Amino acid sequence: MTRFVSSKIACCGQGPYNGIGLCTPISNLCPNRDLYAFWDPFHPSEKANRIIVQQILTGSNQYMHPMNLTTIMALDSRT
Fold first, then answer.
1. CA–CA separation, 66 vs 42, rounded Å?
2. Structural element, H or E, at residue 46
3. For residues 49 and 33, what is the distance between their CA atoms, to the nearest angstrom?
4. Which of 27, 25, 52, 22 is nearest to 37 (CA)?
5. 70: nearest Cα among 46, 61, 62
6. Cβ 26 vs Cβ 14: under 8 Å
7. Which of 9, 10, 16, 37 has the fewest beta carbons under 10 Å from its own?
8. Distance (Å, whole) CA 33 – CA 43
9. What is the pLDDT of residue 6?
10. Domain extents in the chain
11. How many angstroms separate the CA atoms of 48 and 15, rounded?
12. CB within 8 A of 57, min separation 6: which ones?
């Protein structure tokens, strides 16, 4: 199971929770970006993006209702 250290603190940024501004050379930078859900105040980290895409492609209908993209593409290829 994938775990993040925090979804409240960005890996790169300034101010409280690294939530002010974009990632710049003067930003605070986390030691391991794979442990953070957000890269900066606005963008998911690479690891979070991979999880999101995996859910879109093959996720259960608990999250991808009524069906995931793989199922849609399989149905579409039959027509």
1. 28
2. helix 46-58
3. 12
4. 52
5. 61
6. yes
7. 16
8. 12
9. 86
10. 12-77
11. 22
12. 68, 69, 70
Q: List, as own/partner pairs, every contact residues 68-76 make where C-beta atoms lie below 8 angstroms and the sequence separation is at least 24, other chains included.
A: none
Alpha-carbon distances, residue 32 vs 38, 40, 41, 79 (angstroms):
12, 13, 16, 46
Query: Mind listing the pLDDT tens digit for each residue in 4-13?
Result: 998 999 999 9
| Cα angle 38, 68, 4; round to 5 | 25
Structure tokens at 41: 């105040």
Strands (E), the chain: 12-13, 28-29
Q: What's the whole-number mean pLDDT along residues 36-44?
A: 95
Is the pLDDT assigned to residue 71 strictly greater than 80? yes
Which candidate, 47, 43, 52, 51, places its Cα nearest to that of 10?
43
pTM (two decimals): 0.82
